[in-house]
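Project outcomes to date are best conveyed with an example. Our students and postdoctoral researchers have been running inverse folding experiments weekly, and each run begins with a structure described purely in C-alpha coordinates. The record below, which covers 218 residues, was selected by the lab manager from last quarter's runs and is presented without edits.
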Protein backbone atom coordinates (compact mmCIF):
# COMPACT_ATOMS: atom_id res chain seq x y z
CA UNK A 1 0.00 0.00 0.00
CA UNK A 2 1.34 3.50 -0.80
CA UNK A 3 1.18 4.67 2.82
CA UNK A 4 3.31 1.76 4.04
CA UNK A 5 6.05 2.72 1.60
CA UNK A 6 6.53 5.93 3.59
CA UNK A 7 6.55 4.34 7.04
CA UNK A 8 10.35 4.31 7.39
CA UNK A 9 10.85 7.84 6.09
CA UNK A 10 8.06 9.21 8.28
CA UNK A 11 9.49 7.55 11.39
CA UNK A 12 13.03 8.79 10.75
CA UNK A 13 11.77 12.33 10.09
CA UNK A 14 10.18 12.60 13.55
CA UNK A 15 11.71 15.06 16.01
CA UNK A 16 13.93 13.16 18.42
CA UNK A 17 11.66 13.64 21.43
CA UNK A 18 8.66 12.34 19.44
CA UNK A 19 10.72 9.41 18.14
CA UNK A 20 11.65 8.51 21.70
CA UNK A 21 8.15 8.66 23.15
CA UNK A 22 6.55 6.88 20.19
CA UNK A 23 8.97 3.98 19.84
CA UNK A 24 10.16 3.74 23.47
CA UNK A 25 6.94 4.45 25.39
CA UNK A 26 8.10 2.56 28.47
CA UNK A 27 10.60 4.41 30.68
CA UNK A 28 14.20 3.24 30.37
CA UNK A 29 14.51 2.82 34.12
CA UNK A 30 17.86 2.11 35.83
CA UNK A 31 18.57 -1.59 36.35
CA UNK A 32 20.42 -3.25 39.23
CA UNK A 33 21.83 -6.72 38.67
CA UNK A 34 22.23 -8.83 41.84
CA UNK A 35 25.93 -9.51 42.22
CA UNK A 36 28.77 -8.90 44.62
CA UNK A 37 29.01 -5.95 44.54
CA UNK A 38 25.67 -5.13 42.87
CA UNK A 39 26.00 -3.78 39.33
CA UNK A 40 23.74 -0.90 38.34
CA UNK A 41 23.33 0.58 34.89
CA UNK A 42 20.96 2.74 32.92
CA UNK A 43 20.10 2.89 29.24
CA UNK A 44 19.73 6.15 27.37
CA UNK A 45 18.52 6.71 23.82
CA UNK A 46 20.52 9.12 21.66
CA UNK A 47 20.83 10.17 18.05
CA UNK A 48 24.42 10.06 16.81
CA UNK A 49 24.39 13.85 16.58
CA UNK A 50 23.49 14.18 20.28
CA UNK A 51 26.35 11.98 21.50
CA UNK A 52 29.12 13.85 23.25
CA UNK A 53 32.60 13.45 21.78
CA UNK A 54 33.54 11.25 24.75
CA UNK A 55 30.47 9.03 24.23
CA UNK A 56 31.15 8.72 20.50
CA UNK A 57 34.78 7.82 21.19
CA UNK A 58 33.74 5.29 23.84
CA UNK A 59 31.40 3.58 21.36
CA UNK A 60 34.08 3.50 18.67
CA UNK A 61 36.66 2.13 21.11
CA UNK A 62 34.28 -0.67 22.10
CA UNK A 63 33.92 -1.65 18.44
CA UNK A 64 37.67 -1.49 17.88
CA UNK A 65 38.57 -3.48 21.01
CA UNK A 66 35.96 -6.21 20.53
CA UNK A 67 35.67 -6.55 16.74
CA UNK A 68 38.50 -4.89 14.80
CA UNK A 69 40.30 -8.21 14.33
CA UNK A 70 37.10 -9.92 13.11
CA UNK A 71 36.47 -7.07 10.66
CA UNK A 72 40.06 -7.26 9.39
CA UNK A 73 39.83 -11.02 8.86
CA UNK A 74 36.57 -10.73 6.93
CA UNK A 75 35.69 -9.61 3.41
CA UNK A 76 34.41 -6.36 4.94
CA UNK A 77 37.83 -5.27 6.19
CA UNK A 78 38.66 -2.87 9.01
CA UNK A 79 38.89 0.85 8.35
CA UNK A 80 38.63 3.17 11.37
CA UNK A 81 37.71 6.09 9.12
CA UNK A 82 34.93 4.18 7.35
CA UNK A 83 33.58 2.87 10.64
CA UNK A 84 33.46 6.35 12.16
CA UNK A 85 31.64 7.59 9.05
CA UNK A 86 29.11 4.75 9.28
CA UNK A 87 28.54 5.59 12.95
CA UNK A 88 27.36 9.04 11.86
CA UNK A 89 24.60 7.94 9.47
CA UNK A 90 21.77 10.48 9.91
CA UNK A 91 19.05 7.98 10.86
CA UNK A 92 21.19 5.91 13.23
CA UNK A 93 20.08 5.76 16.87
CA UNK A 94 22.04 4.60 19.90
CA UNK A 95 21.03 2.94 23.15
CA UNK A 96 23.89 3.62 25.53
CA UNK A 97 24.61 1.44 28.55
CA UNK A 98 25.84 3.78 31.27
CA UNK A 99 27.30 2.66 34.58
CA UNK A 100 29.01 4.55 37.41
CA UNK A 101 32.79 4.69 37.09
CA UNK A 102 35.32 4.87 39.91
CA UNK A 103 34.93 8.66 40.06
CA UNK A 104 31.10 8.24 40.18
CA UNK A 105 30.63 9.69 36.70
CA UNK A 106 28.53 7.75 34.22
CA UNK A 107 30.67 5.82 31.77
CA UNK A 108 29.62 4.17 28.48
CA UNK A 109 30.03 0.44 29.13
CA UNK A 110 28.14 -0.75 26.07
CA UNK A 111 25.74 0.24 23.33
CA UNK A 112 23.59 -0.91 20.47
CA UNK A 113 23.16 1.18 17.32
CA UNK A 114 20.17 0.64 15.06
CA UNK A 115 18.17 2.16 12.23
CA UNK A 116 14.69 1.93 10.75
CA UNK A 117 15.44 1.24 7.10
CA UNK A 118 14.86 -1.01 4.09
CA UNK A 119 16.60 -4.29 3.36
CA UNK A 120 15.83 -6.28 0.23
CA UNK A 121 12.55 -4.39 -0.13
CA UNK A 122 11.44 -5.07 3.47
CA UNK A 123 10.86 -2.47 6.17
CA UNK A 124 13.17 -3.46 8.99
CA UNK A 125 14.89 -2.31 12.12
CA UNK A 126 18.57 -3.06 11.48
CA UNK A 127 20.98 -3.54 14.36
CA UNK A 128 24.31 -2.12 13.19
CA UNK A 129 26.47 -2.73 16.24
CA UNK A 130 26.10 -4.19 19.72
CA UNK A 131 29.06 -4.19 22.08
CA UNK A 132 29.62 -4.49 25.81
CA UNK A 133 32.65 -4.04 28.02
CA UNK A 134 34.01 -7.14 29.73
CA UNK A 135 32.33 -6.43 33.07
CA UNK A 136 28.89 -6.05 31.46
CA UNK A 137 28.89 -9.36 29.59
CA UNK A 138 27.03 -12.54 30.56
CA UNK A 139 24.57 -10.52 32.67
CA UNK A 140 21.57 -10.43 30.33
CA UNK A 141 22.31 -6.90 29.15
CA UNK A 142 22.84 -7.89 25.52
CA UNK A 143 19.48 -9.64 25.47
CA UNK A 144 17.89 -6.57 27.05
CA UNK A 145 19.31 -4.30 24.34
CA UNK A 146 18.18 -6.55 21.49
CA UNK A 147 14.69 -6.76 22.96
CA UNK A 148 14.49 -2.96 23.20
CA UNK A 149 15.46 -2.66 19.54
CA UNK A 150 12.87 -5.26 18.57
CA UNK A 151 10.18 -3.49 20.57
CA UNK A 152 11.01 -0.22 18.82
CA UNK A 153 10.71 -2.03 15.48
CA UNK A 154 7.31 -3.39 16.46
CA UNK A 155 6.11 0.03 17.58
CA UNK A 156 7.28 1.46 14.24
CA UNK A 157 5.48 -1.28 12.28
CA UNK A 158 8.65 -2.86 10.87
CA UNK A 159 8.37 -6.34 9.41
CA UNK A 160 11.69 -7.75 10.60
CA UNK A 161 14.65 -7.16 12.86
CA UNK A 162 17.94 -7.77 11.08
CA UNK A 163 21.65 -7.79 11.88
CA UNK A 164 25.02 -8.96 10.59
CA UNK A 165 27.24 -11.44 12.40
CA UNK A 166 30.68 -12.75 11.52
CA UNK A 167 30.74 -16.47 10.72
CA UNK A 168 33.69 -17.01 13.05
CA UNK A 169 31.85 -15.47 16.01
CA UNK A 170 30.21 -18.67 17.19
CA UNK A 171 29.24 -17.26 20.60
CA UNK A 172 27.31 -14.42 18.97
CA UNK A 173 25.64 -16.81 16.53
CA UNK A 174 24.46 -19.00 19.41
CA UNK A 175 23.22 -15.90 21.25
CA UNK A 176 21.13 -14.71 18.31
CA UNK A 177 19.86 -18.23 17.66
CA UNK A 178 18.49 -18.36 21.20
CA UNK A 179 16.70 -15.07 20.52
CA UNK A 180 15.00 -16.50 17.44
CA UNK A 181 17.22 -15.13 14.65
CA UNK A 182 17.79 -17.20 11.53
CA UNK A 183 19.87 -16.80 8.39
CA UNK A 184 17.98 -14.44 6.09
CA UNK A 185 17.36 -15.15 2.41
CA UNK A 186 19.32 -11.95 1.72
CA UNK A 187 22.43 -13.36 3.41
CA UNK A 188 25.38 -14.00 1.05
CA UNK A 189 26.01 -17.60 0.06
CA UNK A 190 29.14 -19.41 -1.13
CA UNK A 191 30.76 -18.05 -4.32
CA UNK A 192 32.56 -20.11 -6.93
CA UNK A 193 35.75 -18.42 -8.14
CA UNK A 194 37.10 -18.69 -11.67
CA UNK A 195 39.58 -21.36 -10.61
CA UNK A 196 36.73 -23.46 -9.24
CA UNK A 197 37.45 -22.71 -5.59
CA UNK A 198 34.39 -22.27 -3.40
CA UNK A 199 34.67 -19.16 -1.25
CA UNK A 200 32.47 -19.23 1.83
CA UNK A 201 31.03 -15.97 3.16
CA UNK A 202 32.75 -14.40 6.16
CA UNK A 203 29.54 -12.94 7.55
CA UNK A 204 25.86 -13.82 7.75
CA UNK A 205 22.76 -11.66 7.71
CA UNK A 206 20.27 -12.83 10.32
CA UNK A 207 16.64 -11.82 10.69
CA UNK A 208 13.60 -12.34 12.86
CA UNK A 209 10.01 -11.57 11.91
CA UNK A 210 8.41 -9.06 14.26
CA UNK A 211 4.92 -8.56 12.85
CA UNK A 212 3.07 -10.72 10.36
CA UNK A 213 1.71 -9.22 7.15
CA UNK A 214 -1.93 -9.31 8.31
CA UNK A 215 -1.24 -7.31 11.46
CA UNK A 216 0.92 -4.79 9.58
CA UNK A 217 -2.03 -3.84 7.37
CA UNK A 218 -4.32 -3.05 10.31
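After processing, the design step wrote out the following sequence:
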Amino acid sequence: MPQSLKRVEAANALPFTTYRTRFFPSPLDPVTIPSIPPLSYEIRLEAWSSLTSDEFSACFNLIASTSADAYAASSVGWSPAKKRKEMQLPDLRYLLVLAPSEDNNKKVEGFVSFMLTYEDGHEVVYCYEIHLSDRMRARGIGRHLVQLVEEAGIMAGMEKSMLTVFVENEAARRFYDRLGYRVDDYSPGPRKLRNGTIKEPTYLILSKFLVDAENRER
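The helical segments are 7-12, 16-23, 53-73, 80-86, 141-155, 170-178, 213-216. DSSP finds seven helices and ten strands in the chain. The training component of this project remains on track.
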